[in-house]
Amino acid sequence: MAAALLAGCGFVGSEDDGDSDIPSATPAAVADIDCAKKGKVPGSGSTAQQNAMKYWIGQYQRACPGVRIAYNPVGSGAGVAQFLRAATAFGGSDSPLKPEDVELSSENACPGGRAIDLPMLGGPIAIGYNLRGVDNLVLDAPTLARIFDARITTWNDPAIRRLNPDAELPDTRIRPVHRSDDSGTTQNFQSYLSGAAPEVWQYPAEKAWQGRLGESADGSSGVASVVDSNDGAIGYFELSFSVALKIETVSIDTGAAEPVAPSPATASAGIAAAEIAGDGKDLRLNFDYATLRRRRRPPGRADAFLITGRRAT
């Protein structure tokens, strides 16, 4: 899920605050919104949710032309840091705030207030790849973990051939690509690997990449661009980036009758297996990958794609 991190007693920005990519504000009957007459609301954070943010901001500003909202997709790590030091009014993250960050947020919030996590968007973290002549690639969690930890280094490795018996897999070198910046997408991907393949991926699920070797790129768009440009490359990013660049995506062998491809529908099925946690308006989703791994899939949902972004604002 994507979420927003919210706190504060209002925010006064400069006249130059803004994002040139945000659509111009044109009044329209977009929705029944109680608009503020004017104001500036700066935010920053996750690159995975930048496409959704751009759409939401455009729709709001068409209905409320007096309000200027800007979202800078600097990555979850940088966005949370800016939010906690009150440089922005909201932050976008792919994972909820840590308890110590919530406590820190109270220093810049209204008296008695603190930051809250507000789930806004859920979607699949696609595993995109570039391999000439190969489509409909299937991988499972242990094989993914070994690829991203540089233990499987060529595309015709026996573990990959076993999952793709009808594919003509070349001996091309695998080029795993990860985020160079602190990222909630990275944290969610590593959470999946450590939960679904704990015997292989024994690294902590942090926003910073923990695996060995591999290439790195800044932001989801950077990872997608490297994958798109290099034969043999594989990386992780929000599904919309693979759609925009027409990058092939991996289907995941979850133990169900058929491998599961990333899509809004399959990600929704995966998110439905999560547990809602939090108090009052402070909400987050918890995924118990160990339980899901033992069951092989969420009960009754053979179509669940479990590598999902839990994006908050």
Secondary-structure map with pairings?
Layout lengths: L1 E5 L32 E7 L4 H14 L3 E6 L3 H9 L5 E4 L5 H7 L10 E14 L8 E2 L1 H8 L9 H6 L11 E5 L4 H13 L18 E3 L1 H11 L3 E6 H7 L2 E2 L1 E2 L11 H9 L2 E5 L2 E5 L2 H7 L12 E5 L1
Parallel strand pairs: 1-14, 2-3, 2-4, 6-11, 7-8, 7-9
Antiparallel strand pairs: 1-4, 5-9, 5-10, 5-14, 12-13
Helix pairs in contact: 4-6, 6-10
Structural features, described:
Belongs to the PstS family. It comes from Streptomyces himalayensis subsp. himalayensis. One of its GO terms (molecular function) is phosphate ion binding. With 313 residues, the protein is of the alpha/beta class. It has a domain at 2-119: D-Maltodextrin-Binding Protein, domain 2 (3-Layer(aba) Sandwich), CATH 3.40.190. Helices cover 29% and strands 23% of the residues. It is built from ten helices and 14 strands. It has helices spanning 50-63, 76-84, 99-105, 141-148, 158-163, 184-196, 219-229, 239-245, 264-272, 289-295; strands at residues 2-6, 39-45, 67-72, 90-93, 116-129, 138-139, 175-179, 215-217, 233-238, 248-249, 251-252, 275-279, 282-286, 308-312. The strands form three sheets. Strands 1, 2, 3, 4, 5, 7, 8, 9, 10 and 14 form a ten-stranded mixed sheet that branches. α4 packs across α6. The protein starts with a strand and ends with a strand. 46% of the residues are buried.
